[in-house]
Specification:
Jelly Rolls; three-stranded antiparallel beta sheet; 12 strands; mainly beta; single chain
Length: 150
Amino acid sequence: MIYSDLKNGDFYAACDEKISACLAFAKKLGADTPCGRYEVTDDVFVNVMTYQPKPVCDAVAETHKRYADLQLILDGEEWMGCPDAASVSPAEEYNDEKDIALWSQKDIPLLPMRTGNWALFMPGEPHAPSLKMKDCTVKKAVFKLLYFKD
């Protein structure tokens, strides 16, 4: 997992061409970006969405096998749960069509995610997004980076 802010994006863009494409595209996004799906490259797309975060007690961690998630807060704030893989237990089996498995956990470390913050979770790294820090609507861009085709 990588946790940073857009102002540090140039440093992390050097890590990988897919991460670089996400961070370059992210510079075009903001609180006024319409919700929807946007194609970034052949192997990267982004979903822009708004929602009300859920209570931390309702946290469900997720992992992916094929895609990494780069989650960027465009407006608002939330907690991002970051459980250790050894601390989670299966809640729902892997769904190949949606590339997601769900996990439960007892204690979950939380990262504060505020406007401009982003977190990158590689395939297999558990994360519990969209957790309520305070009453607010969150606008988020979730980039999906394809690393494993099958």
